[in-house]
Design brief:
By secondary structure, this protein is mainly α. Helices cover 73% and strands 0% of the residues. It has a domain of 32 residues.
Length: 70
């Protein structure tokens, strides 16, 4: 019988901890923006153009090196 009371007390303490964490999250603004995440999936993400940028930077470095030689 003592074990049941112990488990009930532990369960109430754990549930109270989760309730406190939820109230803290609501007050700190974790649930304020509920519109953006649902709409974000509808828009395409722009992919970065790494290959062209890398090629341009390599060409720029070669040009700078050639100017230093002359």
């Amino acid at each position: 019988m003592e074990a049941i009371f112990f488990l009930i007390i532990i369960g109430v303490v754990v549930a109270g901890g989760f309730l406190a964490a939820f109230i803290w999250a609501v007050r700190s603004g974790q649930y304020e923006d509920d519109y953006s995440p649902s709409v974000r999936i509808l828009f395409d993400q722009k992919k970065p153009k790494k290959k062209k940028d890398e090629a341009n930077s390599i060409q720029d470095n070669d040009t700078i090196d050639k100017k230093k030689e002359h």
